[in-house]
Amino acid sequence: MDDILPQSLKYLNSTPKKQAVGCSSIILNGQKDRVLAHTEDALTATLNHYYFVVAHIINDTPQGKYNVKEERFMSLCYAGHLPGYTMNYNHHGLVFSINTLSAEVLRSGKTPRHFITRALLGTENFEQALKVLKDEGVGAGDGCSINLTFLNDSSSDCYNIEMAPALGTDKESRLDIKKIFRCNFNCHANKYERIKIEQANQIMIDSSISRMNTFMACDPPKTKQDVINMLGDTSGGPHCVFRENLCMDEEVKTIAVGVFDLNEKTFALYSDNPRHHEPHVILPLILK
User: Fold this and answer.
1) Start and end of every Peptidase C45 hydrolase domain (predicted)?
2) Is 95 left (phi over 0), alpha (psi -120 to 50) or beta?
3) In whole angstroms, what separates CA 273 from the centre of its chain?
Protein backbone atom coordinates (compact mmCIF):
# COMPACT_ATOMS: atom_id res chain seq x y z
CA MET A 1 0.00 0.00 0.00
CA ASP A 2 3.09 2.26 0.04
CA ASP A 3 2.11 4.41 -2.96
CA ILE A 4 -1.66 4.72 -2.62
CA LEU A 5 -2.11 7.22 0.22
CA PRO A 6 0.78 9.63 -0.61
CA GLN A 7 -0.11 9.56 -4.31
CA SER A 8 -3.85 9.99 -3.81
CA LEU A 9 -3.22 12.95 -1.48
CA LYS A 10 -0.48 14.31 -3.78
CA TYR A 11 1.85 14.44 -0.80
CA LEU A 12 4.83 15.50 -2.88
CA ASN A 13 7.13 16.47 0.00
CA SER A 14 7.69 12.87 1.04
CA THR A 15 11.00 11.24 0.16
CA PRO A 16 10.67 9.31 -3.12
CA LYS A 17 10.62 5.60 -2.49
CA LYS A 18 13.23 3.56 -4.33
CA GLN A 19 11.50 1.00 -6.48
CA ALA A 20 12.15 -1.44 -9.27
CA VAL A 21 11.47 -0.20 -12.79
CA GLY A 22 10.55 -3.26 -14.72
CA CYS A 23 9.31 -6.79 -15.12
CA SER A 24 8.66 -8.25 -18.57
CA SER A 25 6.22 -11.03 -19.47
CA ILE A 26 5.85 -12.96 -22.73
CA ILE A 27 3.04 -15.35 -23.59
CA LEU A 28 3.62 -17.70 -26.53
CA ASN A 29 0.45 -19.59 -27.37
CA GLY A 30 2.00 -21.42 -30.31
CA GLN A 31 0.87 -24.32 -32.40
CA LYS A 32 3.50 -26.48 -30.66
CA ASP A 33 5.22 -24.60 -27.84
CA ARG A 34 3.02 -22.86 -25.26
CA VAL A 35 4.89 -20.74 -22.73
CA LEU A 36 4.27 -18.03 -20.14
CA ALA A 37 7.60 -16.49 -19.14
CA HIS A 38 8.58 -13.59 -16.91
CA THR A 39 11.59 -11.58 -15.72
CA GLU A 40 11.52 -10.40 -12.12
CA ASP A 41 13.32 -7.06 -11.83
CA ALA A 42 13.86 -5.75 -8.32
CA LEU A 43 16.12 -3.61 -6.17
CA THR A 44 19.64 -5.04 -6.08
CA ALA A 45 19.34 -5.51 -2.30
CA THR A 46 16.82 -8.31 -2.94
CA LEU A 47 19.24 -10.36 -5.08
CA ASN A 48 19.26 -13.94 -3.71
CA HIS A 49 16.70 -12.96 -1.07
CA TYR A 50 13.53 -14.24 -2.68
CA TYR A 51 11.85 -17.58 -2.06
CA PHE A 52 8.90 -19.76 -2.95
CA VAL A 53 5.82 -19.98 -0.79
CA VAL A 54 4.16 -23.36 -1.34
CA ALA A 55 0.90 -23.43 0.58
CA HIS A 56 -2.01 -25.82 1.11
CA ILE A 57 -4.75 -24.08 3.11
CA ILE A 58 -7.88 -25.98 4.17
CA ASN A 59 -10.75 -24.32 6.05
CA ASP A 60 -13.67 -26.08 7.73
CA THR A 61 -16.09 -23.49 6.35
CA PRO A 62 -15.90 -21.11 3.35
CA GLN A 63 -13.81 -18.05 4.14
CA GLY A 64 -13.57 -14.48 2.92
CA LYS A 65 -15.26 -12.46 0.21
CA TYR A 66 -15.14 -15.36 -2.26
CA ASN A 67 -16.07 -18.20 0.12
CA VAL A 68 -12.92 -20.25 -0.44
CA LYS A 69 -12.55 -23.54 1.46
CA GLU A 70 -9.30 -24.84 0.01
CA GLU A 71 -6.27 -23.22 -1.60
CA ARG A 72 -3.12 -24.85 -2.91
CA PHE A 73 -0.58 -22.70 -4.72
CA MET A 74 3.07 -21.79 -5.34
CA SER A 75 4.27 -18.19 -5.56
CA LEU A 76 7.66 -16.50 -5.77
CA CYS A 77 7.82 -14.00 -2.91
CA TYR A 78 9.79 -11.19 -1.33
CA ALA A 79 10.03 -10.91 2.45
CA GLY A 80 7.06 -9.01 3.84
CA HIS A 81 4.99 -9.34 0.66
CA LEU A 82 1.83 -11.34 0.11
CA PRO A 83 2.07 -14.26 -2.33
CA GLY A 84 0.58 -13.65 -5.76
CA TYR A 85 2.41 -10.61 -7.10
CA THR A 86 5.23 -12.16 -9.13
CA MET A 87 4.90 -15.53 -10.92
CA ASN A 88 2.47 -18.09 -9.59
CA TYR A 89 0.27 -21.13 -10.15
CA ASN A 90 -2.46 -22.99 -8.28
CA HIS A 91 -3.77 -26.56 -8.25
CA HIS A 92 -6.76 -25.62 -10.42
CA GLY A 93 -4.32 -24.97 -13.28
CA LEU A 94 -4.16 -21.18 -13.02
CA VAL A 95 -0.78 -19.83 -14.17
CA PHE A 96 -0.08 -16.10 -14.02
CA SER A 97 2.55 -13.38 -13.80
CA ILE A 98 2.27 -9.72 -12.78
CA ASN A 99 3.67 -6.50 -14.26
CA THR A 100 3.38 -3.42 -12.04
CA LEU A 101 1.63 -0.45 -13.69
CA SER A 102 1.67 3.09 -12.26
CA ALA A 103 -1.43 5.22 -12.70
CA GLU A 104 -1.06 8.91 -11.84
CA VAL A 105 -4.34 8.95 -9.89
CA LEU A 106 -4.55 6.27 -7.20
CA ARG A 107 -7.56 5.67 -4.98
CA SER A 108 -7.52 5.53 -1.19
CA GLY A 109 -10.26 3.43 0.37
CA LYS A 110 -9.97 0.89 -2.43
CA THR A 111 -8.35 -2.56 -2.54
CA PRO A 112 -4.55 -2.62 -3.05
CA ARG A 113 -3.39 -4.71 -6.01
CA HIS A 114 -1.38 -7.06 -3.76
CA PHE A 115 -4.60 -8.12 -2.01
CA ILE A 116 -6.38 -8.67 -5.32
CA THR A 117 -3.63 -10.83 -6.78
CA ARG A 118 -3.43 -12.81 -3.52
CA ALA A 119 -7.16 -13.56 -3.87
CA LEU A 120 -6.52 -14.59 -7.48
CA LEU A 121 -4.54 -17.59 -6.18
CA GLY A 122 -7.79 -19.17 -4.97
CA THR A 123 -9.68 -19.04 -8.27
CA GLU A 124 -10.77 -22.15 -10.17
CA ASN A 125 -11.60 -20.78 -13.64
CA PHE A 126 -11.45 -17.68 -15.83
CA GLU A 127 -14.87 -16.39 -14.74
CA GLN A 128 -13.81 -16.49 -11.08
CA ALA A 129 -10.53 -14.80 -11.93
CA LEU A 130 -12.37 -11.91 -13.62
CA LYS A 131 -14.66 -11.57 -10.60
CA VAL A 132 -11.66 -11.23 -8.30
CA LEU A 133 -9.97 -8.67 -10.56
CA LYS A 134 -13.15 -6.58 -10.87
CA ASP A 135 -13.48 -6.62 -7.06
CA GLU A 136 -17.14 -5.65 -7.27
CA GLY A 137 -18.31 -3.40 -4.46
CA VAL A 138 -14.88 -1.79 -3.95
CA GLY A 139 -12.45 -1.90 -6.89
CA ALA A 140 -8.68 -1.57 -7.15
CA GLY A 141 -6.81 1.32 -5.58
CA ASP A 142 -3.83 0.93 -7.92
CA GLY A 143 -3.02 -1.13 -11.01
CA CYS A 144 -1.08 -3.91 -12.64
CA SER A 145 -1.03 -6.17 -15.68
CA ILE A 146 -1.97 -9.84 -15.27
CA ASN A 147 -0.78 -12.45 -17.78
CA LEU A 148 -2.73 -15.66 -17.24
CA THR A 149 -4.10 -18.93 -18.50
CA PHE A 150 -5.78 -22.03 -17.07
CA LEU A 151 -4.09 -25.32 -17.93
CA ASN A 152 -7.41 -27.15 -17.72
CA ASP A 153 -9.17 -24.77 -20.16
CA SER A 154 -9.97 -26.72 -23.34
CA SER A 155 -9.87 -23.51 -25.42
CA SER A 156 -6.13 -23.09 -24.64
CA ASP A 157 -6.66 -19.32 -24.68
CA CYS A 158 -4.29 -17.04 -22.78
CA TYR A 159 -4.94 -13.49 -21.60
CA ASN A 160 -3.27 -10.21 -20.78
CA ILE A 161 -5.47 -8.09 -18.52
CA GLU A 162 -4.66 -4.48 -17.69
CA MET A 163 -6.19 -3.46 -14.36
CA ALA A 164 -6.55 0.23 -13.44
CA PRO A 165 -7.89 1.95 -10.32
CA ALA A 166 -11.63 2.31 -9.98
CA LEU A 167 -12.83 5.52 -11.65
CA GLY A 168 -14.72 8.25 -9.77
CA THR A 169 -17.57 6.76 -7.76
CA ASP A 170 -17.28 3.38 -9.51
CA LYS A 171 -17.03 0.38 -7.22
CA GLU A 172 -15.07 -2.03 -9.41
CA SER A 173 -11.67 -2.08 -11.11
CA ARG A 174 -11.24 -0.96 -14.69
CA LEU A 175 -10.16 -3.92 -16.83
CA ASP A 176 -9.01 -4.28 -20.43
CA ILE A 177 -8.90 -7.94 -21.48
CA LYS A 178 -6.78 -9.07 -24.42
CA LYS A 179 -7.16 -12.68 -25.52
CA ILE A 180 -4.11 -14.43 -27.00
CA PHE A 181 -5.41 -17.14 -29.31
CA ARG A 182 -3.44 -20.14 -30.55
CA CYS A 183 -0.57 -19.32 -32.93
CA ASN A 184 -0.15 -15.87 -31.34
CA PHE A 185 2.06 -14.22 -28.74
CA ASN A 186 1.97 -11.18 -26.47
CA CYS A 187 4.55 -9.10 -24.61
CA HIS A 188 3.90 -6.73 -21.72
CA ALA A 189 6.10 -4.53 -19.54
CA ASN A 190 5.23 -1.80 -17.01
CA LYS A 191 3.21 0.67 -19.07
CA TYR A 192 -0.51 0.78 -19.84
CA GLU A 193 -0.80 -0.13 -23.51
CA ARG A 194 -4.58 -0.17 -23.99
CA ILE A 195 -6.30 1.62 -21.10
CA LYS A 196 -6.14 5.37 -21.73
CA ILE A 197 -4.89 6.73 -18.42
CA GLU A 198 -2.39 9.27 -17.12
CA GLN A 199 0.67 7.40 -15.89
CA ALA A 200 3.24 8.12 -13.20
CA ASN A 201 6.88 7.00 -12.77
CA GLN A 202 8.64 8.30 -15.88
CA ILE A 203 11.65 6.01 -15.41
CA MET A 204 9.36 2.96 -15.45
CA ILE A 205 7.63 4.24 -18.59
CA ASP A 206 10.96 4.88 -20.35
CA SER A 207 12.18 1.43 -19.35
CA SER A 208 8.98 -0.20 -20.62
CA ILE A 209 9.16 1.58 -23.98
CA SER A 210 12.77 0.44 -24.39
CA ARG A 211 11.99 -3.19 -23.55
CA MET A 212 8.91 -3.31 -25.76
CA ASN A 213 10.95 -1.84 -28.65
CA THR A 214 13.48 -4.62 -28.11
CA PHE A 215 10.75 -7.27 -28.24
CA MET A 216 9.17 -5.79 -31.37
CA ALA A 217 12.56 -5.76 -33.12
CA CYS A 218 12.86 -9.53 -32.61
CA ASP A 219 11.38 -12.07 -34.98
CA PRO A 220 8.02 -13.29 -33.65
CA PRO A 221 8.78 -16.17 -31.24
CA LYS A 222 7.90 -19.66 -32.42
CA THR A 223 9.54 -21.80 -29.72
CA LYS A 224 10.25 -21.78 -26.00
CA GLN A 225 13.89 -21.07 -26.78
CA ASP A 226 12.90 -17.99 -28.78
CA VAL A 227 11.08 -16.66 -25.71
CA ILE A 228 14.05 -17.45 -23.47
CA ASN A 229 16.35 -15.59 -25.86
CA MET A 230 14.06 -12.55 -25.83
CA LEU A 231 14.03 -12.42 -22.01
CA GLY A 232 17.83 -12.76 -21.96
CA ASP A 233 18.36 -9.82 -24.31
CA THR A 234 20.93 -7.32 -23.01
CA SER A 235 20.74 -4.78 -25.84
CA GLY A 236 18.83 -1.53 -25.38
CA GLY A 237 21.23 0.31 -23.10
CA PRO A 238 20.38 0.99 -19.44
CA HIS A 239 16.76 -0.13 -19.94
CA CYS A 240 17.53 -3.54 -21.39
CA VAL A 241 15.35 -6.61 -20.82
CA PHE A 242 17.81 -8.62 -18.72
CA ARG A 243 19.47 -6.14 -16.35
CA GLU A 244 22.80 -7.32 -14.94
CA ASN A 245 26.09 -5.40 -15.10
CA LEU A 246 27.94 -7.92 -12.88
CA CYS A 247 28.45 -5.22 -10.21
CA MET A 248 26.48 -4.29 -7.12
CA ASP A 249 26.28 -0.58 -8.05
CA GLU A 250 23.20 -1.15 -10.20
CA GLU A 251 20.04 0.00 -8.40
CA VAL A 252 17.77 -2.49 -10.18
CA LYS A 253 18.66 -5.96 -11.44
CA THR A 254 16.87 -8.88 -13.04
CA ILE A 255 16.98 -11.21 -10.06
CA ALA A 256 15.03 -14.13 -11.55
CA VAL A 257 13.49 -15.45 -14.76
CA GLY A 258 10.63 -17.94 -14.69
CA VAL A 259 9.39 -20.06 -17.60
CA PHE A 260 6.09 -21.92 -17.34
CA ASP A 261 5.89 -24.64 -20.00
CA LEU A 262 2.14 -24.97 -20.45
CA ASN A 263 2.43 -28.23 -22.39
CA GLU A 264 4.85 -30.03 -20.10
CA LYS A 265 3.25 -28.46 -16.99
CA THR A 266 6.60 -27.42 -15.52
CA PHE A 267 8.15 -24.24 -14.12
CA ALA A 268 11.85 -23.46 -14.71
CA LEU A 269 13.58 -20.89 -12.50
CA TYR A 270 16.73 -19.02 -13.55
CA SER A 271 18.72 -16.47 -11.57
CA ASP A 272 21.32 -15.92 -14.31
CA ASN A 273 20.77 -14.94 -17.93
CA PRO A 274 18.67 -17.79 -19.41
CA ARG A 275 20.35 -17.35 -22.79
CA HIS A 276 23.61 -18.63 -21.35
CA HIS A 277 22.71 -20.69 -18.26
CA GLU A 278 20.61 -23.68 -17.37
CA PRO A 279 17.76 -23.25 -14.86
CA HIS A 280 18.50 -23.79 -11.18
CA VAL A 281 15.45 -25.99 -10.89
CA ILE A 282 12.55 -27.31 -12.96
CA LEU A 283 9.47 -27.94 -10.84
CA PRO A 284 6.34 -29.89 -11.80
CA LEU A 285 3.00 -28.08 -11.71
CA ILE A 286 0.90 -30.30 -9.44
CA LEU A 287 -2.79 -30.03 -10.27
CA LYS A 288 -5.87 -31.11 -8.36
Assistant:
1) 29-275
2) beta
3) 19
Cβ atoms of residues 114 and 85 within 8 Å: yes
Provide the terminal-to-terminal Cα distance of the chain, rounded to the nearest Å: 33
Instruction: Compute the distance between CA of residue 112 and CA of residue 165 in angstroms, rounded to an integer.
Output: 9
Instruction: Place 31 in a pLDDT band, splitting at 50, 70 and 90.
Output: very high
pLDDT at 244: 81
Cα angle, residue 272 at apex, residues 267 and 276 outer, rounded to 5° = 95
- Are the CB atoms for 55 and 73 separated by under 8 Å? yes
pLDDT tens figures, 234-278: 998 889 999 886 666 677 789 999 999 999 999 999 999 999 999
Name the CA dihedral angle for 163, 287, 267, 142, rounded to a multiple of 10 degrees: 20
Q: Which of the pair, 255 or 5, is modelled with greater confidence?
A: 255
- Contact partners, residue 205, CB within 8 Å, separation at least 6: 102, 190, 191, 199
Contact 140, 110 (CB under 8 A): yes
User: pLDDT above 70 covers what percent of the chain?
Assistant: 92
